[in-house]
Amino acid sequence: MPQITFITADGTHRTVDARNGDSVMQTAIKNGIPGIDADCGGACACATCHVYVDESWKDRVNKVGDMEASMLDFAQVVLPNSRLSCQLQVVEALDGLVVAIPESQH
Amino acid sequence: MVETSINSFQAPGTVIIGAGHAGGSVAAFLRQNGYVGSITLIGEESLEPYQRPPLSKAWLKGEANEEGLRLRRAEFYIENRIQLYLNTRVDAIDRSARLVCMADGKTVNYDNLILATGARARTAPFEGTSLPVVLELRTATDAEKLKLALKQGARVVIVGGGYVGLEVAASARALGAEVVVVEREARPLARVACSQLSSFFLRYHSQRGVTFRLGRSVQSVQMLDGAARVCLDDGEQLPADLVLVGVGAVPNEELARHAGLPCDDGVLVDLTARTDDPNIYAIGDCTRRPLPLYNRKVRLESVPNALEQAKQAAASICNLPAPRPETPWFWSDQFDVKLQIAGLPMDVAEIVIRGDPNEDKFAVFHVSADRRIQAVEAVNAVPEFMMGRQLIGARTEIDVERLRNPSISMKEIAI
């Protein structure tokens, strides 16, 4: 079972078990990680599950889709490692993934 | 667990009635805020808090399972000391004793009570609604019944051309069913979207095999030799293997009303989600809430609204500053179309269409007399939605001519 570490806006690290097939966003919600709102539940419609993927993992997660890129273009404080966590699928190879959560999703 | 008082061993804390998206989320937000009191979450359904939006889409098409619908892991409630009572109906609230009475006779005391009772499907005003072929869609149980009946070649009649009706129509077509939508108004989405959007969805659905009967109402559903017939007001009879009624929702406000809390098509709350009683909050679909952006009280049926009010209540209970107000927004997925709506089309002086509806990619902006965007309805138009939502919230004055010109970036339309 892959483990994912979330770094919340206040710097707290929380490592949780993730389920293959879930998204990183679902993993956060299911574990009550603060700062990921996921208003749309994973429909790539709201950009309230914005995360920063740790640099060492940036090239190992699945690529940004057109819709996601378009949403991210208008999100707050976007960085080169910004992703919508609803579009990051959990697979075994992501065991150890680290993502940071921005201060605000709105 | 079979105590007379389920919280007899602990001090009264927060009791949440309704274990849907709003109720489940407020429990989690309270713990995120460091709330240490007891939390009791009471729900009528048998499933832990889950997401409803996929029920008309991914769930029907078999792309989501029960595990995928659940909002939290089962252990989450134990780890966070949230007492979860499922299959449990609440009968009454005794405000003077700060007591909630359940249908099975058990009671629980509260310091703070949160009503998250949601809304229920509006009953259709025709004969035959209790026949087994007539279904509604609100809960996972409803969705499961619908899924079992939606087979290749099944004849589906959908009563009501709102979001639920159109989303199910799209899912049913994807599964190979034959679909007729009966809508009382002259256009689909009449109550919830502008006419340009209605025209677009009418064309898009029609081109994908959905048939419409507009301006028609259902008089009855009848069984004839074991087969159902949907009888319309013009005499037409539509054969049906399945009838789905989606004619809106009504707030579950009876508990509040019987407890003497003011209601007006929704439990009335303030910007901290508090009702008239300082110890009772209400959140989500069951409420009518102030929306300062539009200087009105509205009842919103959406997940973002449920989450916003859950945060308001959790902040208030924990004596934290009120969260920043949000711009209401909605979305709908039908076939491969992504519809995103921000704001509400109120106090509109002008409608601006950006893009071409015939290219399946456009946005309808509702602009006020003082050139503020009041609402945007975006079809496959993410920049228009995302930027529009920000401009609505900030009440930014915009240049209408630039807005009208899709070759100018959405980032360059503010004045």
Automatic annotation (TrEMBL), chain A:
<comment type="similarity">
    <text>Belongs to the adrenodoxin/putidaredoxin family.</text>
</comment>
<dbReference type="GO" id="GO:0005829">
    <property type="term" value="C:cytosol"/>
</dbReference>
<dbReference type="InterPro" id="IPR012675">
    <property type="entry name" value="Beta-grasp_dom_sf"/>
</dbReference>
<dbReference type="InterPro" id="IPR001041">
    <property type="entry name" value="2Fe-2S_ferredoxin-type"/>
</dbReference>
<dbReference type="InterPro" id="IPR036010">
    <property type="entry name" value="2Fe-2S_ferredoxin-like_sf"/>
</dbReference>
<dbReference type="GO" id="GO:0009055">
    <property type="term" value="F:electron transfer activity"/>
</dbReference>
<protein>
    <submittedName>
        <fullName>2Fe-2S iron-sulfur cluster binding domain-containing protein</fullName>
    </submittedName>
</protein>
<feature type="domain" description="2Fe-2S ferredoxin-type">
    <location>
        <begin position="2"/>
        <end position="105"/>
    </location>
</feature>
<dbReference type="GO" id="GO:0051537">
    <property type="term" value="F:2 iron, 2 sulfur cluster binding"/>
</dbReference>
<keyword id="KW-0479">Metal-binding</keyword>
<keyword id="KW-0001">2Fe-2S</keyword>
<dbReference type="InterPro" id="IPR018298">
    <property type="entry name" value="Adrenodoxin_Fe-S_BS"/>
</dbReference>
<keyword id="KW-0411">Iron-sulfur</keyword>
<dbReference type="Pfam" id="PF00111">
    <property type="entry name" value="Fer2"/>
</dbReference>
<keyword id="KW-0408">Iron</keyword>
<dbReference type="GO" id="GO:0046872">
    <property type="term" value="F:metal ion binding"/>
</dbReference>
<dbReference type="InterPro" id="IPR001055">
    <property type="entry name" value="Adrenodoxin-like"/>
</dbReference>
<dbReference type="GO" id="GO:0140647">
    <property type="term" value="P:P450-containing electron transport chain"/>
</dbReference>
